Amino acid sequence: MEFIDLKSQYRKLKPSIDARIQAVLDHGQFILGPEVKELEQRLAARVGAKHCITCASGTDALLMAMMALGIGLGIGQGDEVITSPFTFFATGEMIALLGAKPVFVDIDPATYNIDASLIEAAITPRTRAIMPVSLYGQCADMDVINAIAEQHGLAVIEDAAQSFGALYRGRHSCNLSTIGCASFFPSKPLGCYGDGGACFTNDDALAKGLEELRNHGQDRRYHHTRIGINGRMDTLQAAVMLAKLDVFDTELVARNEAADKYAALLKNAVRTPKVLPGYTSVWAQYTIEVEDRDVIQKAISEAGIPTAVHYPVPLHLQPVFSDLGLGKGSFPHAERAGDHVLSLPMHPYLAPNDIERVTDAVKAAVLAVVTK
Ligand SMILES: Cc1ncc(COP(=O)(O)O)c(C=O)c1O
């Protein structure tokens, strides 16, 4: 069994993916070719945003978003960005890379997303932006976060690396704030065959900035108006994504069916994930909570079921952030989650009997721990 089965997806989509790739090989415009523009138009239309600027990864999307907003980079040394400590490293990493300070706020244990009620207390005169993470495929509470940001004159960058395709109160993830940042890493619900990402915004000036930033800060060839990066999405990756986008909605239905079946079969055995009313999840991960997680993970692995831990060490406890002086106990909910979460296989090609195999293994492992 695969944790994320990209081979089955390719078998199903082979004719369209191959044709899209062949078209790029034939026209030869490997950098910013026509597929990149086509993809940007389709992605923007899908989320209802005025602009989509694709880039080379979700990490670059976060970096470019902050650069476009003038955060860090010596311009604003001492800038602070409020974010969640319970996320993939890139979220805090890009804040720090720009010379800004990540200011962590604990999560709501019900959703694993930043607890919006704690944000206001973390705002200082140096705060420039709030960067909520829409973890596991479900949005953070963006309305509340946006209202706080507006009151304090802050930008909001949604780290939507895991939530492209999710709905929040009828609106789309990536189009809920100043800039939304997606990742199209291969294992994401919508992924390419390498690294890829995108920024979304409704602000024309920010969109222009983002477009220049991803291409060495040039507004036209060899004319550089700002310091940027080489952050372009490859045309080949855009081509793959265009083929996958055609079936994305069908795949989301299958992901939700898999999640419902997991929830039904596991409901009395472990803590299953909760999707709040008015929200949908794209199930970037299907993540349960168990006691004795490492023991249970080992037992499940011995039964041939691949699992993963997203994420074992919250950012404030990462060695590189030790100078922030935030020891154990600083963010109890994030730390508890790091000790207990376990992600199960999740993809649109899971057969019902695959799910039963997983849940049987989980239940057997939990029972063995309880009766030990
Ligand atoms: C929450 C979060 N932020 C940022 C990233 C970075 O995205 P990428 O791997 O495309 O650079 C990821 C990717 O795993 C992520 O899960």
Explain the overall architecture:
The longest helix has 22 residues. It is globular, with a radius of gyration of 21 Å. Helices cover 39% and strands 13% of the residues. The mean pLDDT is 97. It contains 11 helices and 13 strands. The chain has 372 residues and is an alpha/beta fold. The site of pyridoxal-5'-phosphate has 15 residues, from helix 3 and helix 4.
Shape: globular
Q: How many strands appear in the DSSP assignment?
A: 13
What is the element string, with H for helices and E for strands?
Answer: HHEHEHEEHEEEEEHEEHHEHHEH
Relative helix content: 25-40%
Using only CA atoms, what is the Rg?
21 Å
Strand percent estimate? 5-15%
Strand order of the largest sheet: 1-9-8-5-4-2-3
**Major beta sheet summary:** 7 strands, mixed
Low-confidence stretches: none
End-to-end Cα distance: 28 Å
Which key terms come to mind for this protein?
372 residues; alpha/beta; 13 strands; globular; binds pyridoxal-5'-phosphate
